[in-house]
Amino acid sequence: MKRDYIEIFSAKLRKHGIKGKDLAEASGRNPKTISEILNRKASPSIESFNHLIECCDRLSPGFADEYYLALAGHVDLDNFVSSLSSNELAVLLMNVSQRIRKLGARENAIANTLQVLPPESVKELIEPLTEVLRAIGIAVGKVQ
What we know:
Layout: H1 5-16, H2 20-27, H3 31-38, H4 46-59, H5 63-72, H6 77-83, H7 86-106, H8 109-116, H9 119-135
Helix pairs in contact: 1-5, 2-3, 2-4, 4-5
């Protein structure tokens, strides 16, 4: 199955709220060049396109991983999580917490990632988990 790398790139830009002018500024490219790439009027070199992906990842951490997963045809994580039953979601959360503990033992990858996210994004991540933990009787401090 052939995947359209520009279509996937454009979809991820929209999902991450990255505007063409922001990408142009971050990448040092002219906004017209970004527009031409997105409208298929120009074809960037592989190196140039990788640079754009790296810039997007700096603007919105996680962009590159999502882009490459979508390009490879892996499961769309948003759709996957939305499709889970409450029991399946609970199992997934337990597995994620175990993975976070393992990462935390080796490095502060999660903490470092959370520190670069805007506070409102961190709050969006943490508040639903806090509600679930409270619902099952685990005391949690206030999310700031």
